[in-house]
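Hey everyone, long-time lurker, first post.

I ran two proteins through the pipeline my lab uses and got sequence/structure pairs for each. Pasting them in order. The first:
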Amino acid sequence: MKILYGVQATGNGHITRARVMAPALAERGAEVDFLFSGRAPDQLFNMEPFGDYQCRSGLTFSMSKGKVNLWQTLVGNQYRQLIRDIRALDVSNYDLVISDFEPVTAWAARNQGAPSVGIAHQYAFLNALPDGAKWRVLKPQVKLFAPVQQAIGLHWDSFGGHCLPPLIQPPLFTPTQVTEKYVVYLPHDDLAELRQALQSYGDQQFYIYCGVTERSEVGNIVLCPFSREGFQRDLASCAGVICNAGFGLLSEAMQYGKKILCLPQQGQPEQISNARILAQLERGTVVKNLRAPEVKTWFDQSAPMATPWPDVGGMLADWLVSGRQLSLPELGERLWASVSNNQVSSVNNHHSGMIERT
């Protein structure tokens, strides 16, 4: 089976999902070509799993100090180039086109009548979600941005059987808990302002992942360069995570059993939806800024129960390669049943292997 797999590279969560699917599909004999868009090629890192991948400009958001800059987003995207790339991409040699909310591959498949499947968190917004009707705003945008014949949405709950569990890697490191250690990933915030805000919490130590070239430490702040392995190692050992409302990282934090302090990006309806559902499911604390009174309370909270997500990648790869014979509701039932079983196991083994350090 020959597959063209398009990945929206604006957010790391899309790439993380592709890292799971790449070996899963290869193990089942599928030949996969990857195409990434939405980020400059020189800003991609740890891309070895994708072989000789392609890049296109695609579409992306323009961010400024943690907010979506709508004007820069509108004028900064290369719409003519997008249309040229869609028209130039020949998908006739592929048995299937998969889009992780990537517009070039999705629209090329649509225009050429090729079979297409969408696998992304964003496709969850095609269904009713308990997010204060944000999904109603996002539904037409999702359909327009990356249309597919069969859409698979991913979320933290099935919400009536319409969504599959998160598609993420299993833990790369054994979860431990170093008290007073917190991982911070707010890549669009001003670093100087971020450091100033966190320095006021002198009893805690913050590992900020940002665009630096090497790790450095000043006071209670550790600046860390982007690294998939380094980030996962710190995530596994921290007491909690401070981040935006991106679906991938929040799912990983739940898997490791880490408490979450969430600052959704302003002007980003998807993140606002995620934050509302996160709070509704009591999976994290949502604040507007790091000086909110809830922050101090959050530091004193205990670690939540870990959620070991099932092997969504393996089951999806089986389903795709075998010709998608199982219905999506049936596939979802099997995966969510696995989540319930894993949670029972997690309760029985809660805190086993956890290390408290002061």
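...and the second, right after it:
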Amino acid sequence: MGALCASCYVEVYGVAVLPEVLELTYCRVCGSYKLQGQWVEGSGELLDTVREYSYILLSQKLKPTVNVDEVWIEDVEVVESAEKGVLNVRVSIAGRAGSTPVSESRIVKVKVNTSVCPSCARRISKTGYNAIVQVRPLTGDFGDDTRRRLERLLSKLEARVRSSIISIERSKNGFDILVDDQNVARIIAGRIKATFGGYITETFKVTGVKRGGGRKGVLTVAVRILNVKPGDVIAYSGAPHIVVESGSQGLKLVNMSTGDRVTVDYESLVGVELLKAEDYAGGMLRRLQLSRIEGENLVFKDASGGELRIPLGYVRVLRGDLTLGGVYLAYLLRGTLYLVGGLELEQEGSI
């Protein structure tokens, strides 16, 4: 380091050359910022974003002074500034000159220019979308629990997918998700279907012709999500049916008036009524536990302590296995007891 010791060299020449002022363009709506001409996701709070931006940009622009061999940034800390629209960052710089370690601390000003990024501008104006993901329930109403699950799913989508969402319109019975990319709309619909089950249909409304040929328009991806589970009862084809199982092709049902089993595709179930438990007051639908076996008879007990004794040959297990202590949703039809097991019966505990 010539005639100077390390500390004097740092005092005279510094460890590194770096800008004294940076400019940050920051979206006041979503917190993203502009980096090398591209909008990128921010760190949430403005101070965290300033620190992240300063670290990235200064690491790129940092150059060692003449007698220093290597430099790097160890830390960036946001400190107070008296200037409006300006934040100061304290940059901790380390390096080496030969085998001698050197370090210093510098203050860099960051001018913050607030703006609205293109994605947020489209969301605010609700323009610029090329696709709509239309989410509706397969049966009945959407329901608060289904709504909360869907909102959690959308909030956990990766940043590149969320950035394509222009707006989410919530209605009484579903969601309309406006998206600027048709392929992303299909991705979102696929994630929803994978989580809830159901089916997807697509329609395309032509709005014009692209330069050089080809159609342009708005793609609607309609997702009918499965909002019934085994043990639920629906009014299908004029009779109450209990849902036994759901699969990729549809629902397996049992007619509670005849005992007949049927598999119905999801498209055929659109708009059917989901029946409430109170519609089955009077014992048609009961919660039973297999208490014991007495010869050829099975003995079940209910929540009131009452017992039902029925021959094994008159028991039909529609779902799950027949086990001692097992809890079932059950109904009795013309002397035959139909059981749906393997259910999470709202954590009611043992009977």
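Reply from user beta_strand_b:
Welcome! Quick read of the second one: DSSP finds six helices and 24 strands in the chain. The radius of gyration is 33 Å.
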